[in-house]
Amino acid sequence: MWRFLGTSKALTSSDVWFLGKCYKRLSEESSSDSDSESGHAAFLEDFSSRIWITYRKGFDATADSKYTSDVNWGCMVRSSQMLVAQALIFHHLGRSWRKPSEKPYNPEYIGILHMFGDSEACAFSIHNLLQAGKSYGLAAGSWVGPYAMCRAWQTLVRTNREQREVVNGNESFPMALYVVSGDEDGERGGAPVVCIDVATQLCCDFNKGQSTWSPILLLVPLVLGLDKINPRYIPLLKETFTFPQSLGILGGKPGTSTYIAGVQDDRALYLDPHEVQMVKLHYLLSIYEHQFYICVFLPPVT
């Protein structure tokens, strides 16, 4: 089952920056130009290799609730799952990895999908994120802001790592995680500063002093406006998509979140979690249900 979001007419001939990679002259109308055609095809291949996680219905009720679907309230959770999934793809498979057109699929790719299944048995499921973020206000049926979402990930990653070490010593989340926040609640605006000493200590704690280098995921919750984004932030936000380390942005407005993965001119390209699909059994993903985590063709543009 293939999902189509947007059409080829959504993009212009301008360059696109997508998760740190530039695609030049994407317009299909310039098909006589071989560079344009190859750029367009390469972008589609890159985009369709990203993991797309959406609303689900039919999962087991989350703890302390009767909710068996996250429709109308879980978009921030799903957007955050997409961002972390890309971090795992980049770490294990590299930025240049593309989903093959035919089976078999990379076992590490299937393993990453398993982590985001919709059951407590899956490490980074919506069930476990809600439990980890309970002290920050995460609850089934309620929308959550970016600060609380980042803290939920911080808690879940720490818990997951501790449990894996206790059970069998296997690697869990393969990188340190640093939530860069300027104040206690993260909702007052302002520009937080990355503290190198803090990042160094987190990496040292992660690798237990056994290595001089460790990967680290930086999550930076920001308030960039009230009803809409302050225009003065737009150039700087666009610049972040040119960084080779870029993992995109969880963005939108209160009550609506998407996973913004690229920009073209002053427009954002994103994967939209507001598509309702039936829950998929994580142990069947290696057979065929991985297709429900794939979004092909061009993304929506705002």
In words, what does this structure look like?
By secondary structure, this protein is α/β, with parallel strands linked by helices. It has one domain. 30% of the residues lie in helices and 14% in strands. Strands 2, 3, 7, 8 and 9 form a 5-stranded antiparallel sheet that branches. It has a two-stranded parallel ribbon with strand order 1-11. A hairpin with a 2-residue loop joins strand 7 and strand 8. The N terminus is likely disordered. Its main location: cytoplasm. Belongs to the peptidase C54 family.
Brief characterization of the structure:
The chain has helices at residues 34-48, 75-93, 107-115, 126-132, 146-167, 196-207, 234-240, and strands spanning 3-4, 16-18, 21-23, 56-57, 176-179, 216-219, 249-253, 256-264, 267-271, 277-278, 295-296. It has 302 residues and is α/β, with parallel strands linked by helices.
Q: How does the SSE layout of this entry go?
A:
Layout: E1 3-4, E2 16-18, E3 21-23, H1 34-48, E4 56-57, H2 75-93, H3 107-115, H4 126-132, H5 146-167, E5 176-179, H6 196-207, E6 216-219, H7 234-240, E7 249-253, E8 256-264, E9 267-271, E10 277-278, E11 295-296
Parallel strand pairs: 1-11, 4-10, 5-6
Antiparallel strand pairs: 2-3, 2-8, 7-8, 8-9
Helix pairs in contact: 2-3, 4-5
